[in-house]
Amino acid sequence: MDKQRKWQLLLILVCIGLTLYNILPTLFYYSRPLKNPIGSDAGKEIALSIEKRVASLEGESIEWVHSF
């Protein structure tokens, strides 16, 4: 039984290690602040581009709903 427990413990530790190896770079990347703050003009341009993209999807989404 002791061999089986060592194997299970090793497997659990490897899984935890691989999980941390995959998650930590993402956490480090998103924890850094933005280099330049977004001003009001840039914010307005971003909002307008989002509005245009959403409006362009309106027709397709209405067709999708009608298909059901």
What would you call the structural class? mainly alpha
Q: If helices are DSSP runs of H or I spanning 4 or more residues, what is the number of helices?
A: 2
| Shape category | flat
The amount of helix comes to over 70%
Residue windows where pLDDT falls under 50 for at least 5 positions: none
Mean pLDDT: 88
Order of helices and strands: HH
Q: Alpha-carbon distance between the termini?
A: 57 Å
Q: Mind summarizing the main beta sheet?
A: none
Strand content: under 5%
Q: What gyration radius follows from the Cα positions, in whole Å? A: 24 Å
Number of domains: 2
Q: Can you walk me through this structure?
A:
The chain is an all-alpha fold and 68 residues long. The chain folds into two domains: 1-32; 39-68. It has two helices and no strands.
